[in-house]
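Customer escalation, tier 2.

The customer says the design service returned an amino acid string that "doesn't look like it belongs to this structure." They asked us to rerun it and document both sides in this ticket. The original structure tokens are below, unchanged.
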């Protein structure tokens, strides 16, 4: 378990599912506890994927980060943060920074030397946060989705 001031970082467990869902909903991805539990069950045994939670001094989960190995033909593997959220009432507490530090540590543990983060173009506060902890803007892109 990693610690930053009153924030502690640990691996997410099934007991966290309801809170993971609440936070995903705050992020703009409505989820229920059963959905979060199912997603966590798929991610947990996969060695190239991790979900960490931040707990405050009271032991309440106030955020999570989802990080995984990203493989593509165009470049060497990188770690990618595929989700980061801190409870709206706990932002600027150090939880986001602590979660990102743990994601960076996880990447290094897996032999990866770069960590990629994608952030919706409308999330200006998140952009400032990432830049403030040393991330550089790489590009702006458009994502497409087709339901199958």
């Amino acid at each position: 378990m990693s610690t930053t001031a009153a924030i502690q970082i640990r691996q997410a467990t099934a007991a966290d599912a309801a809170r993971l869902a609440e936070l995903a909903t705050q992020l703009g991805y409505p989820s229920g506890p059963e959905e979060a539990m199912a997603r966590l069950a798929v991610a947990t045994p996969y060695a190239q994927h991790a979900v960490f939670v931040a707990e405050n001094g009271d032991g309440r989960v106030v955020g999570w980060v989802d990080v995984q190995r990203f493989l593509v033909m165009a470049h060497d593997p990188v770690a990618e943060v595929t989700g980061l959220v801190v409870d709206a009432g706990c932002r600027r507490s150090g939880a986001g920074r602590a979660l990102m530090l743990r994601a960076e540590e996880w990447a290094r543990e897996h032999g990866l030397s770069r960590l990629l983060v994608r952030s919706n173009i409308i999330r200006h506060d998140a952009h400032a946060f990432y830049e403030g902890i040393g991330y550089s803007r790489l590009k702006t892109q458009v994502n497409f989705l087709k339901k199958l």
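Tier 2 assessment: The sequence is consistent with the input. The chain has four helices and six strands. The chain has a mean pLDDT of 92. Sent an explanation to the customer and offered a walkthrough call.
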